[in-house]
Amino acid sequence: MGPYRTLYLDMNSFFASVEQQIDPSICGRPVAITAMENEKGCCVAASYEAKAYGIKTGTSVADARRMCRDIVFLPSRHRLYVRYNLRVAAVLDRYAELERIRSVDEFQLGLSGHATKLEGARDLVTRLKAAVAAEVGECLRFSAGIGPNHLLAKIAGKLEKPDGCQHLGPDNMPHRLAHLALDDLPGISRAMSARLQNAGIHDVPALCRLDPRHARAIWRSVEGERFVRALQGEAIPLVKTKRGGYGNSKVLAPAFRAPPEAYLVSRWLVEKAAARLRRDGRVAASFGLQLSPMGRTTWAASMRCAQTQDTLEFLRINRALWRTAWPVIRRAKLAGIGIHLGDVDLLDARTGDLLLPVRPGERTNGERAARAADFINQRFGAGTITYGINQPHPGFSSADDSINPAYASPLSGSAGPQRRRRRRSRSSGRGVLEDV
Ligand SMILES: [Mg+2]
Q1: What's this model's pTM, rounded to 2 decimal places?
Q2: Number of compact structural domains in the chain
Q3: Active-site positions?
Q4: For residue 110, how far is its CA from the centre of ligand 1 (angstroms)?
């Protein structure tokens, strides 16, 4: 067995590549995907031909036109990109263990056998590139990163674009990352970079040499220790131990403002949030509901429950809270609704009790059924299995922090992953590792 456990694939200029794949007349031409069909909008993605002119995510349409007169603007078609994401995932899954779809254009695969050695992993990448080109389309290329864990594989995947294949391992760490700034690393914000500078850590090699216990003190959290251990090549999964909660809220379109309709939208929000909770290996011990009648004060209530990640449990509490709210809101029009799964902890840290006789990390029957539904929905499209009747809501005014398109309803529109992309590009320092 070699030291490599994870392969990370980052599609190159994914949105623009999909458009080029569909329309051969724009293949090889500068293409920018825009958020809105007017001059006020900005580019949410650019093809490599457009990037050569300096156009990138966030460039305004007017500026992009000035930088490149021949550029082709196309409005974003998010559902199309999600469909292509799933097609790529299906191909990858036949050649290797697809551990996770990380975003609309990123995939994480597990390496085993011969592929845990560098040569074997590189062979696998060559096969995957050929298979994606042959079965999904030649325009769809990706950069691959090979590493002993998710963090190093992800960083390696950002080192060479487009169509690259790089590794980070015992033979080239940490000097291979010496050219990067601290906040170029995923997970290091500008604020954390400043904190590291204050602690005398000025570059990536110094961070790699840091004693993990010291890192815990600098981060003021076990996250720091995990991060540095991952940088040092330990085979630990990159999961946060704490998280504020899983929220989902919607400003309702007029057609959904009557309480019976809004109730069905709330069921859909619960399903989405609970799927994200399970995807992250977590359990929640409280459920909150917020209803905003038009022109009246917001109604909000929450309820505690045993730690769970079972969608049906949350749906029961949701129903109970709606019954409580009913006398207040039944004649109202609801401008917005929100649900929140709180008091979150890791599933592995849950200890059973008399009422919940499970071992740490073990799932209840309901949770196992929910996981099976997640798997089917991920494979065959969101909404293949639902928990009774729900009502997906168009995504035009979403306050949703959903990040994984595999869990987003096809009707949820384009808000999630694109919003995240813009947020990320603001927060990632110099953006050396950016690619959309
Ligand atoms: Mg990409």
Answers
A1: 0.60
A2: 3
A3: 106
A4: 19
